[in-house]
């Protein structure tokens, strides 16, 4: 399910961002600048999503939820806070779209003629192998 732009804007209005120091290499930039972005989305308090959508998000994204029922998305890959914020929002929308898409139903297919033929040949070979194990009739 692709989210329309106006719903994305409404969802972004309900999101809270916080910045902290990022880990890893980077020297002085990492030690002084708050580049890591943490996006928090309170799912239960959302006015944009209906109850069914909220339940789907809770079920499919339960590993990314905290105890307060907030969806957490972090980004610290970039050296810039702005780029990390962009990546976090992009990741957030991808997660929401993934959670709200319904899985496609599997279409039943019949075995192909070649696979049926192969199965029968395999059965005949196994039967012959078992016949050879028997003692000969005199």
UniProtKB/TrEMBL annotation:
Keywords: Hydrolase. Residues 21-37 form the Prokaryotic-type class I peptide chain release factors domain. Residues 100-138 are annotated as: Disordered. It holds the Pfam family RF-1. SUPFAM superfamilies: Peptidyl-tRNA hydrolase domain-like. Residues 126-138 have a biased composition (Basic residues). InterPro entries: Pep_chain_release_fac_I. Its EC number is 3.1.1.29. GO terms for molecular function: peptidyl-tRNA hydrolase activity; ribosome binding; translation release factor activity. PROSITE patterns: RF_PROK_I. It is an enzyme of class 3 (hydrolase). Coiled coil: none annotated. One of its GO terms (biological process) is rescue of stalled ribosome. NCBIfam families: PRK09256.1 (NF006718). This is Aminoacyl-tRNA hydrolase. It comes from Mariniphaga anaerophila. The lineage of its organism: Bacteria, Pseudomonadati, Bacteroidota, Bacteroidia, Marinilabiliales.
